[in-house]
Amino acid sequence: MLQKRQVWLVAVLIVLSGCAVLGVSHYDDLFGPEQPRQRLVEYRQGGAHYIQQVKPILDNRCVVCHGCYDAPCQLKLSSPQGIDRGLSKALVYDGTRILAQPPTRLLFDATTTSQWRDKGFTPVLNERVQTGYANLQGSVMYHSLLLKQRTPFPQQTVLNDAFDFSLDRQQTCPTMDEYEQYAQNNPHAGMPYGLPALTNQEYGKLHTWLEQGAQMSEVAVPSKAVAQQVTKWEQFLNQSGNKHQLAARYIYEHWYLANIYFSEHGGTDFFKLVRSKTPPGEPIELIATVRPFDDPKVDRVYYRLLHERSTILSKTHLPLALDDKKLARLYTQFIGPNYSVSELPSYAPKLAANPFKTFADIPVKSRYQFMLDEAELIVKGFIKGPVCRGQIALNVINDHFWVAFVDPEKNASPAVEALLMQHDDDLLLPAAEQSNVLPLSSWAKYAKHQSDYLEAKTQLSEQIFNQGGKLDLALIWQGDGHNPNAALTIFRHFNSATVVKGFVGQQPKTAWVLDYALFERIHYLLVAGFDVYGNIGHQLITRLYMDFLRLEGEQNFLNLLPRSHRQQIKQHWYRKSHLSLSEFINRKSLLGAPSHINYQSDDPQRELYDKLAEYLAPVMHREYDHLAVPSTLRVLNDLPNAAVATLPQVSFVLANDEQGELKGYTLLRHNAHFNISSLLNEEGQRAYAEDYVTVLPGFVGDYPEAIWYLPNEAHADAFASGLRQVSDEASYQALKAQFGIRRTHPQFWQYSDLLHQTAKQTRGVEFGLFDYNRLENR
């Protein structure tokens, strides 16, 4: 009996294994083995059809969800290389991995489709025999579109639980061999996921393109005039001599995320500043390292401008204008000053991760002025760089705060320079340990460094301000009389964030004042030194270290207040918190020196905000002035708390004004906290009764969660009145049914196009496609 059962089990296993082999090889049997195809063609040899007919559909219907790091299945449809690369089941954002994983950055970490296949990426296009029938039947993209066309999609309703829109949802990422079973189990999962299907005309164009082999073309090369600008800037960045090379390295490590354009030639061509093994005049050969300061393993690094040919996305767009004036400014900052560089620094991790050691030869004033000139860009790197997604990365900051800067004339004194040189070891950052970190031992080490540095910094400040130096508004940078980067506002939207010029919105709970050392450390912590592919220890120590830096920035602001109020206000900011190590270390950095700012009221923080706004008024950016919103919508700045509680973080409003011109507005909800010193218990620190809303002109944020359309003033009045009456989920959904553009709105894509058209008109060179991965289902 036992022998018969064993024979039966063997027979079953053979049958099952045969089925498995049949399933795996089914498409091989039909269309032959997979083999990456050459799909790039010249514009005049078929590429025009892709650029003119296909790319606009992919951009406006697909890239809005499949654009970057956080695209489902790492499917990036924003460039031919991303389309060809296809899908991966591996997660980029994973805060629990024990060991760092190899990065998967387009153009950098593999240069051919075959190399991506070796890294586990699977195709969405047919890579078997190239016939019309096979190109459709063997394409995951085609079947995903077809599934949506064949499956009825609800209209004007909330989608059921079969749809999962959570950012951390399980990703299936089926291959072609898995797709039939996947579709049977998930008939609702056609593309665009959780949004209306393409029109018949759009679907027909993609059908034809896929059937004909999905040929693609790059966007046009830059004009000769733009190419000449590229040549000029590459010549500047690649001059011989240690002084020029060290300056170029510093510039690169701060600008490498920027989308560079030449202001004299519009903003249609963007470039990335990259490291290359080849000099100007030769094809760029990228140096692919995890961090911009990792060892390039070449004798000489060349800094090149790589044409950005991917679709521009709002969530990663950091535009930087270059012109002759900027070039002259860089000469003044880095080449003109009288200093020498006897030896170029190495790329050893403990040195390269410490900009205070690496760039010690460059005067502090030059470095700081360079950062201040483009302060919004540098701060945007914190927001739109590798940590642009993830609550762990962002729950270290408040939802709404203002940022000002210490004047470089005050911050680059001989005493301050000496402080930085004497304590450059204490300014070492976690990136020195690369991407695999043991957090507890590292935490203790960096806590000691921070404590020693703050003690020395506080002693020097006490000495300066108690011996003739004045602690007053003259310490604040006024933008050299013309630069609006002097005042910034940061908005956190739970797991994304935005930075804009100006002091925007109501007076916030907290503010930062950044000095050079603090500004530089935040950049090397959150941008240059952060590895999104790093292990849990690397990500944890980054978050914990940022606690130090936030507290330091806040205490720079508190030190401008009367001594009698500093501790009291700080205690209000950190109510109900258990004394963390970060707070303990930073506690002694509150100065004993008096403020020489003349305060008249019992609310000196409000007075200081007013005084700062007046002090910076000549350079204050006004584009997002919340008081400039039409009165019909401005009333929402004082929304009742019950209504505030129902709102998502970022809502976009399209409204026609009295002249019938369509304008865009943003409704931001700010989550209040008793404190933000808790790493894992953010919900327990929420001060719900203190949540509030800010309504702004224009679009602030990259991930709209709700879209509202108000065709006339009567609708705007009714919307504002209705929103003030909202008190629960049912009343919110009723308002959404009346004025909202839900995921299930039959004209969703027309309103999406209208939204992008309006944003393009108002944002200009800063325009990029919005991301719909956070659209609510309500």
What do you see in this structure?
There is one protein chain. The chain has 778 residues and is of the alpha/beta class. It has 5 domains: 31 residues; 180 residues, no CATH class; 127 residues, no CATH class; 254 residues, no CATH class; 141 residues, 2-Layer Sandwich (Nonspecific Lipid-transfer Protein, Chain A). It is built from 29 helices and 12 strands. It has a 4-stranded mixed beta sheet with strand order 7-6-5-8. A 4-stranded mixed beta sheet has the order 11-10-9-12, with helices on both faces. A two-stranded parallel sheet has the order 1-4. A hairpin with a 5-residue loop joins strand 9 and strand 10. Helix 2 packs across helix 8, helix 19 packs parallel to helix 21 and helix 20 packs antiparallel against helix 21. The protein is globular, with a radius of gyration of 28 Å. The N terminus is likely disordered. Pfam families: CTI. InterPro entries: Fatty_acid_cis-trans_isomerase. It comes from Pseudoalteromonas obscura. Keywords: Isomerase. GO terms for molecular function: isomerase activity.
